[in-house]
Amino acid sequence: MEEYPEEMRSPPVSLVAVAGCPELHQTVSTHLHSLQPPINSLALPDLSKISLLIASKPKDDQIPRPNPDGILKRDWLLKHRTKIPSVVAAFFSSDCVSGDPAQWLQLCSDLDNLKAVIRARNIRLVLVVVHSHSKDDITEDRMLALRKRAEMDSKYFVTFAQNDESELKQSLHRLSSIFAELANTYYRDEGRRIKTRIEKKIYSSVELNVRYCFKVAVYAEFRRDWAEAIRFYEDAYHTLREMIGTSTRLPAIQRLVEIKTIAEQLHFKISTLLLHGGKIAEVVMWFRRHNASYTRLVGAPEAVFLHWEWMSRQFLVFAELLETSSATIQNISFLVGSAERSLTEWEFRPANYYQLAAQYLKEKRTSLEVAVSISETLNATDSSAESVVPSTYVGQFARLIEQGNEFVMQPLTDEEYIHYAISDGKRFQDSFEIIALLKKSYDYFSNLKVHRIGAFCGFQMAREYYGVGDFSNAKQLFDGIASLYRREGWVTPLWEVLGYLRECSRKQSMMKEFVEYSLEMAALPISSDTGVQSSRKECGPAGPASLLQKEIIHNEVFGFIGGELGLTETENKTDLKVTGDNPLHLEIDLVSPLRLVLLASVAFHEQIIKPGSSTLITLSLLSQLPLTFVIDQLEVQFNQPACNFIVVNSQQAPSGASGVDSHRVETAPSLSLSSNRWLRLTYDVKPDQSGKLECISVIAKMGPHFTICCRAESPASMNDLPLWKFEDRVETHPTKDPALSFTGQKAIQVEEPEPQIDLNLGAFGPAFVGESFLVPVTVTSKGHDVHSGELKINLVDVRGGGLFSPRESEHISMDNAHVELLGISGPEGEDESDQGVEKIKKIQESFGLVSVPFLKCSDSWSCKLEIKWHRPKPIMLYVSLGYSPDGDDSTAHKVNIHKSLQIEGKTAILISHRFMLPFRRDPLLLSRTKPVPESDQLTTLPLNETSVLVVGAKNCADVPLQLMSISVEADEDDIGMSCSVQHGSDRLDPAIVVPGEEFKKVFSITPKVNLPKLRLGNVCVRWRRDSGTGEQPGSTESSVLTKQILPDVNLELPSLVVSLECPPYGILGDPFTYYIKVQNQTHLLQELKLSLADAQSFVLCGSHNDTIYVLPKSENILSYKLVPLASGAQQLPKFTVTSVRYSTAFQPSNAVSTLFVFPSKPHFKMVDVGEKQTESLAAE
Amino acid sequence: MIVCVAVVGHQNNPLYIQSFTDADDALKLHHIVHCSLDVVDERVNNPKKSGPTLNETFLGLLYPTENYKVYGYLTNTKVKFILVTTDLDVRDADVRNFFRRFHAAYVDAVSNPFHVPGKKITSKTFAETVSTIVKSFGLSSAG
């Protein structure tokens, strides 16, 4: 597009001329230029200069010449844009107008001259009188005379005032609107004038028709009448197209060149205008038509390159047009959706056109090369191309001949023209142009992520690079493209690309790449029937993709790696060869394209073996190379280097020296690999170390200095061969045993040696909450020495599952605190301090680690784990011993042995308690009389009275326990003062409590301080396992203290206390006194009603019913005399005390009012009652 | 005239590609078919662009090159059919008809129990059927 002249590329702008008063020109032209649309102005200092600018018409336009020399004049457009104004504005200062007659005459003559000049061209005239002073006053007569003289409408007679800013602005505004109007009129009239010629067909030749249409269109453009411009450009274009067969004006080749050049210009104009109007779809359609109507106009065979050049330029210019206006085309998709279906989105993308431009330029280059070679063989004189210049008509060339003092244009013959064109064409380097075009296209497609089309552009680009000898650029591009084709399995294009790559690396003397590309090509899945390409024109340096070609490449590369052939076939001295100084090593990994060339599949026949035993390994090799080849030596490498071995071909001379001496050398009957046939080799492997044994790679050696390292693959997880996986062929298994092909692995697990150590956990039976439970652990060696042994202990909640690792235990410690690993004590006789500092000992709540000292065979070592339960909970104890049977510390040799034991944690002692009131003494506690439904269930005790607390300790365990002591201990001293707790002896003789038995102890409690709530303290039971049986594996000697908090009690001051007093027993017929004592502890007088019922076993003396008054803080005693009438346990007479004030009644229970009556006075043997008291209670 | 037909598999790999020209432009046709896959991808990934062709197997004109027109077809198993023709004036109905018959032939070929899905189609019968369909292309419109 840049090669078009400026006047073509930009829309035309109206032109006016300003003459006279040069001091105003700057202001006026700046103002005009800033208008919308702008107006260009020519400034002339003097009116007389106008005739210099506008020369009189060279020829009379009214009588057109019958046969013009060309279609369009080269400078016509430029002339109208820069030279011929549409309007001339003559500026006169008011002094001149109103001045003396001489001035006036001068003015008139200038005006006449001007009129004469512009009338011939219909240029409009504007007269401007510049008022230099405000006072200036031109007489009306003068003005009128001037206007008459100029023969013009008063509208175009302007006075220009410049006194102040606003006046100046107003004047400029008026002036510019007049200019715009007149310019418009001028261009319209000019256009109309020519249009009538077209309409009336006043033209003698088609050339003129085209020219007129072009002119009308340009005038319309001046007026910004785009629709008319397009219409006439199209008319011109169509007329021009029709000319092709008919015109005979010029020699054939030059005629076509001229027509195409003009068609190009017209097309450019139309496209620009259409794009300007935003009609994208129409532009594309128009371009397609343009392309279609000219693409076949190849022209004479010797000038065919001109056609391709022209075509290429069409595409390039169109691409540039689309690209520059693409900012306005945001929504291509929208356009496609609405436009007709015949357009695809690709036609809106400039990249497409760049690519095609490159394609045509390539055609041009080819045909130019042919033309050049022909012209060189003809050996025409070079001078004929000289002094050829573009002639006055667009698209024509002529020879400039100096005749005397002036130059004359002389028409050319076609031969001369072709010669000129060829020599002109030779100046350009088309390849770089092509690369530049393709690069644009490539970048564009890459940005759009359109990889395949981008790759095609890249391929063409790389071919150009290859053509100009820029191999590194070419190789880089080809590599990218090859990976795309490999991925998608497009073999034929891949073959082509690889062929180029092979040649690139050959040219760059890159030996390794050359071999890699050659091998890959030879292994491509190309069967004999695909790619029957007869000629070499289309295909690259690799030749046609065929089986034969593959074999040629195969032989060549094997000759090369064998050191027989050099890299280049020339007799170059510096030819590269594979030699001892220059060895070649290839790596084939799991994603390499060279897997086609050599694939190594390795399968162990077993999955797990014992250390020291041997297993079979099958090594399978597959190659897709077309011809059979022989491997000299195979080296199989493992992750345990001791297992590495070498396979040599038994047919060859035993060259064991070539391998490393330490490795095992096996022989194979044949190591030849034929196309698509597995070579299967099976050998023994005997690993010594435990752990994983993995085959890493197989190194094949071919020829003296060439090796391929092939990564080993497991048959079970082997990927399909790239490219070949799409071929319809029989799949074969890498191993003979098909099951092994599906499951075989390249790695095998070598087991640890069998542990010869006993690990014994000695504990049994449940553990009890609170005690330190000891678990003896014994390590006994039965054949292995124990080196650097480590004992790991884990406590795991049985319900919780998983093992607690040391790190996790921090989080779980809250839950797991119920059971705790307290410590690990060493073996008997060994003190903690004796264990050296280097011994590891690490104990956490649920994890422990302790080191085991060196043990010889049949030695043993033991320790005790001390575990404490805080809550009843079953626990899993895991103990694992890791050691190495040999002296070295390598972890590979570690042997591990695991043991686990479930231990229940149980509660041994269940503590219960009960409060009782003293015998036959009943305080009135008001809170007891009132039923309070949801009151706290606290026991209420009378204040200042002695209550009885019975504490029971029940053995819930399975073993007998010894109770050491039971006591009630206050938490805090101050509360301890508030009540007194009394009991018998603090220490018990260790009482044996068998399972299920309950031991009770009685305490008496007297609260002394009036508190609403009294904390009584803890019941502490001290116990231990009964050691009388002799076997007590887990328990310690020390006793266990079990504590339980007694519930709080309420205290209340009783208002009345009723107590009964009677002797402990009665004797038949012997009278005794029965006292009923009522104690009033209040400050109020208490009225009590008392009634006594008769009892049949007693004779009663006293009142049956009575009302008594008890004074405050005093006691009333009622006494009855009773005589027992019957022996045995007899019911005393029942009495009822009713307190009027509290509306409560008291009646003693049956147990309280029962008395044993002896028939006669009994005789008791008084023995040590105080000593045996506890025993009798315990037996209760 | 149809110059090339192709069947392209899931991984955009060619399953069957056959050119019907005497000239040695097989490689060029390979490139054209391969490039047209980009357009198929774009059509399939941006269905809004294809508008009314949503859920339709026939993808329409993909890619007008200078001398060829490329049409596409996508089966419901996401296998692509590509047709390259030199005819500049092709009726959509003809192309649709062609693809319908081609699809039927393809279904027959892959229904062969000995055919492994995803592998190249090497059936001779298929090749013959395709060549018949190709020869009869456009005749219905003329008749």
From TrEMBL, chain B:
GO CC entries: endoplasmic reticulum; Golgi apparatus; TRAPP complex
GO process terms (BP): endoplasmic reticulum to Golgi vesicle-mediated transport
Compartment list: Endoplasmic reticulum; Golgi apparatus, cis-Golgi network; Golgi apparatus
Gene3D superfamilies, per the entry: 3.30.450.70
Keywords: Endoplasmic reticulum, ER-Golgi transport, Golgi apparatus, Transport
Cytoplasm as UniProt keyword: no
InterPro entries from the UniProt entry: Longin-like_dom_sf (IPR011012), Sedlin (IPR006722), TRAPPC (IPR007233), TRAPPC2L (IPR044760)
Pfam families per the UniProt record, alphabetical: Sedlin_N
Summary of subunit composition and partner proteins: Part of the multisubunit transport protein particle (TRAPP) complex.
Family statement drawn from the similarity comment of this UniProt entry: Belongs to the TRAPP small subunits family. Sedlin subfamily.
Protein name: Trafficking protein particle complex subunit
